[in-house]
Amino acid sequence: MKKNKNQIILISILIIIALMYNVLYFAIPFDRTHSNVSFWITYGFTMAMIIAIGLVAWISFNRKELKSKVFGISIFKVIIFAGIVQIVFDIVTMSIGNFFTFPVWITILFEILFFGFTVISLIVKTSYRDMVDAIDEQGRIKTSCIDELKIQSQLLIPLCAQKQYSGMIVKLSETFRYCDPVSDNSILDLEHEIFGNLKKLKEYIVSDNDAEAVKTIDIINNQMKERKMRLKNVR
């Protein structure tokens, strides 16, 4: 709902800007006999820039992650700066063209080079944000398994509060809590085995199968030691 509201506000602002620009463009009595072609070229590019501001604003802030929105501000600044420069050039063209002939080739050259530079800047900044997002996503994937193991091990503590091996469960939970959170493709199979054994451990605790529970705790501890050693070898 809030996102839709922001979009409506943005569209409304851009429509108002476009209307104001058109009113000023056609209401001010410029002498168009000298540079009519240049006037229309700058008019077209300015209107295109206003539309581009709306599109870039949507691209900049359409993601939920805070870091993406921060990078989106940097992207949005590019198009805002470009819009200001375009309007300034528009004013210069019309001011000079009101008294003298403003060369069409200068107008075309400036607009093409300026728009090209703006598009390249937007592509570079957007690509950089996408790269950062991809790295963050990869990091979340690599820590997701251990994060889940931490949660599951902590949930076991209240289940075995009256058990003789409750202290072993607490230590096991601390092992998960303080281990290296970043995984690696080479140990995914081991982490899946640990996760499976943790599920078995919960079943043994609930069914009061204390002997198997203690054995499983030892197995998981050994697997965590193996995980630590394999990670050291990888890095």
Topology summary:
Elements: H1 2-27, H2 36-61, H3 66-97, H4 104-156, H5 166-178, H6 188-206, H7 210-234
Number of domains: 2
Major sheet = none
| Strand element count | 0
Strand content: under 5%
Shape: rod-shaped
Question: How does this structure look, described?
Answer:
There is one protein chain. By secondary structure, this protein is mainly α. It folds into 2 domains: 2-139; 157-234. Helices cover 83% and strands 0% of the residues. It has 7 helices and no strands. It has helices at residues 2-27, 36-61, 66-97, 104-156, 166-178, 188-206, 210-234. The model has no long low-confidence stretch (mean pLDDT 82).
Short description:
The chain is an all-alpha fold and 235 residues long. The chain is built from seven helices and no strands.
Features:
235 residues; mainly alpha; 2 domains; 7 helices; 83% helix; rod-shaped
